[in-house]
């Protein structure tokens, strides 16, 4: 972990007194203890975390919510577009690619078709 940068407010730092019971001066080395909070996976403060993947269809961009996506999923509301949940079929239609037969070929994840 050498060379890593850590940004912490001064309220989260705690200095340790030296052996004589005095705080270390600026000329001496001082020991600093950081109180780090773990990053929990799954739930945070009672809210469920949504995992999403950025997708595109033509020039339109949206986020595919992984937990809500169920194959075949054509009518399942699992695409977040303009702060609304819509189905992949609706996303393809809004993107102007409704004439394509297969929505999995129209939607791209990282430049790659879903099919």
Largest pleated sheet: 6 strands, antiparallel
Q: Helix/strand/pairing class, anyone? A: mainly beta
Q: What share of the residues does DSSP label as strand, in percent?
A: 25-35%
Which consecutive residue ranges, at least 5 long each, have pLDDT under 50?
none
The H-and-E topology, N to C, reads as EEEEEEEEHHEE
Strand order, main sheet: write it out: 8-7-6-5-9-10
The quaternary structure here is: single chain
CATH fold naming of the domain at 47-113: SAND domain
Name the shape in a single word: globular
Give an account of the 3D structure.
Pfam families: SAND. This is SAND domain-containing protein. By secondary structure, the chain is mostly beta strands. The protein has a domain at 47-113: SAND domain-like (SAND domain), CATH 3.10.390.10. 10% of the residues lie in helices and 28% in strands. It has helices at residues 88-94, 103-106, and strands at residues 13-15, 32-34, 43-44, 47-48, 52-57, 60-65, 79-81, 84-86, 108-109, 112-113. It has a six-stranded antiparallel sheet with strand order 8-7-6-5-9-10. A two-stranded antiparallel ribbon has the order 1-2. A two-stranded antiparallel sheet has the order 3-4.
